[in-house]
């Protein structure tokens, strides 16, 4: 009885518009086919956007003498080290003077970072490539939204 009531209630709310849509050839598509096509389109669009984003990021890294292979090698393995270096990258991206130094000279202002962040000089020098790569993502969040979401998670 509950199912009958549910079907009656839903049938009242359904409009008289046909659930099937046709194309120029006269072929009809069910709502499930239409929904599946839209989901496929969205997935392909997201894939294309991510591919373009990675291509742009790779070109930007190339300006700093970096590539994805070196980033894999130099990325910190320990969680606490990674968190510290990401915090340093956020600090650089938000401070105009530090960011200008990085963009103009293509190198980190290590002595200023030691003073401002409190992180050991040796740690900063070891994580230099990782910090630069991460800072670039934080500096341009609209250009790299997928990478930014990956770093934040």
Précis, in short:
73% of the residues lie in helices and 3% in strands.
Could you give the topology of this structure?
Blueprint lengths: L1 H12 L7 E2 L5 E2 L1 H33 L4 H7 L4 H16 L1 H10 L4 H8 L3 H6 L1 H12 L5 H8 L1
Helix pairs in contact: 4-8
* Proportion of residues in helical segments: over 70%
Radius of gyration: 25 Å
Lateral strand order in the biggest sheet: 1-2
**Strand and helix order:** HEEHHHHHHHH
Structural class: mainly alpha
Span between termini: 47 Å
Total of DSSP H or I helical runs spanning 4+ residues: 9
Low-confidence stretches: none
β-sheet strand percentage: under 5%
Number of DSSP E strands:
2
Structure notes:
Helix 4 packs across helix 8. The longest helix has 33 residues. The protein is elongated, with a radius of gyration of 25 Å. The protein is mainly α and 153 residues long. Strand 1 and strand 2 form a beta hairpin. It contains 9 helices and 2 strands, in the order αββαααααααα. Helices cover 73% and strands 3% of the residues. A two-stranded antiparallel ribbon has the order 1-2.
């Amino acid at each position: 009885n509950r199912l009958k009531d549910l079907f009656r209630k839903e049938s009242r709310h359904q409009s008289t518009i046909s659930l099937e849509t046709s194309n120029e050839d006269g072929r009809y598509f069910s709502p499930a086919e239409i929904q599946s096509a839209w989901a496929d389109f969205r997935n392909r669009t997201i894939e294309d956007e991510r591919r373009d984003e990675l291509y742009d990021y790779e070109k930007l890294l190339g300006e700093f003498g970096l590539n994805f292979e070196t980033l894999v090698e130099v990325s910190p393995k320990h969680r606490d080290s990674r968190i510290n270096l990401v915090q340093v990258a956020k600090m650089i991206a938000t401070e105009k003077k530090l960011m200008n130094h990085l963009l103009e000279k293509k190198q980190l202002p290590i002595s200023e970072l030691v003073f401002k962040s409190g992180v050991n000089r040796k740690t900063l020098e070891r994580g230099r490539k990782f910090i630069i790569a991460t800072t670039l993502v934080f500096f341009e969040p609209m250009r790299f939204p997928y990478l930014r979401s990956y770093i934040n998670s």
